[in-house]
Write a structure and sequence with these properties.
By secondary structure, this protein is of the alpha/beta class. It contains 18 helices and 18 strands. The strands form three sheets. An eight-stranded mixed beta barrel has the order 9-10-12-13-14-15-16-17, surrounded by five helices. Strands 1-3-4-2-7-8 form a six-stranded mixed beta sheet, with helices on both faces. Strands 5-6 form a two-stranded antiparallel sheet. The longest helix has 23 residues. The N terminus is likely disordered. It binds ligand C2E and magnesium ion (2 copies). One magnesium ion binds next to strand 14.
Length: 436
Amino acid sequence: MATDKGGEQMGEQYTGIGATYDSMTGLMDRMTFFGDVNEYRKRRVQCHIVLVQLSRLMQVNRKYGIAVGDQLIRDISMWLAELDEAYQVYRIANSRLMLLGPACSRQQAEACVNRIHSRFGENWQVACEGQEHTILAKTYLIHLFLDPEDTENDLLDKMNFGITVLEKKGRDGMVFFDEEIKRDMEHQKYVLEEVRYAIDHKTFRMYYQPIYDCKEERFVSAESLIRLWDRQGTFISPGEFIPMAEEHGLIDQISWIVLEKVCRFLGEHPELALQTVSVNLTGQQVSDVTLIDRIEALLADCQLSGSRLRIEITERTVADDFEEVKKTMLRLQEKGIRFYLDDFGTGYSNLSSMFSLPFEVIKFDQSLVKMIDVSRNGRRTISLLAQLMHENDYRIVAEGIETAQQAQTVRETGVDRIQGFYYAKPLPEEELLQLL
Ligand code: C2E
Ligand code: MG
Ligand code: MG
């Protein structure tokens, strides 16, 4: 396997002396990769990198067995090693292979990545223990030109950012780390810095959007929604920073700030003419066993009954820890806290698992409710869904109602409550108190 050029310099190419190897594939390993990158950097020699991340290795291992998965990695490694002798090939983690090549034009880089991409459009014939398997392997391909200022961590951050970009698109493919993606990454860095600052200084603010009850003809509850302005006073939407906070392990700290602010507000305003206020949490948080004691302590501290608190979770975040989530939900229910299923209609809506969790309310997402604008079929679908939910003892909140016409039609479908700009926008505490 032409994997090591023995430390000699070939034109602008460099490979470190004393390379170490990955025992499974015979490729050079992670330590050698970063050593070689460092060498390019020190010498200020341009180079470029292609990450080949096998994205469905777990599924291959599950379906064919680990031995076949390992053989697939070997076959792919061999193919990459023979692709072009201008490149060094490394295996830096289980499913991560790297190509390191000398300076080249964007077109040359694209040609290399495209060759890899099209190979992965075809099957691999993997021979293992006397059997042959036909496997379609999936990859994320990230290409970048090394920035001499980048540290090892910067490089890994860029790779990981490229992978999240592809993951968000929900498919395999390739990303060229160009100016546009660099700007996106810089923007994410800025947002995360502002979020961390807001966590440390508790500068988040809470807004409350009243929810209208169709029978009682008044506001009966509200959803708490977090608000963030950066240090220059520019608004950053939760739709943007909450998913980033989830990805970077910050959501737990944010949720505790939110829970504390909301419980304090409710505790300070026992006269507030709202039965309940809901807080958005993720399924992972609800699966955390310490949640129960912490919420109990917070309620006691704020002299608040759990029956005024509701927790909204989305189906997306429940799937991973289903059993744990269910246990915690049941225990919190004993304290009077009830649960809303948020954003119903946006995911894959697994009705059987939904019906086995103790939700009080199902919130129909705006995208679902928008169907009423489109056709009579849409209206009928919402009516039937509402009927199904009522037969299973759920109440329904329709989200995102913006016009009188939508409010009228959605009421005719039988939903119980409505949340939307038509009735009220999310309001700061003082304005909520005035409105009520
Ligand atoms: P969500 O929980 O589904 O919240 C409802 C979103 O719909 C809010 O957006 C609200 O302002 C918006 N909305 C309400 N009525 C209308 C309407 O008539 N038209 C339109 N176009 N939008 C309407 P917001 O505040 O930007 O929050 C977006 C998402 O961010 C929330 O969706 C929730 O997933 C997340 N989020 C917000 N606050 C928190 C929080 O405190 N904790 C957590 N974990 N997530 C939060
Ligand atoms: Mg919500
Ligand atoms: Mg929602």
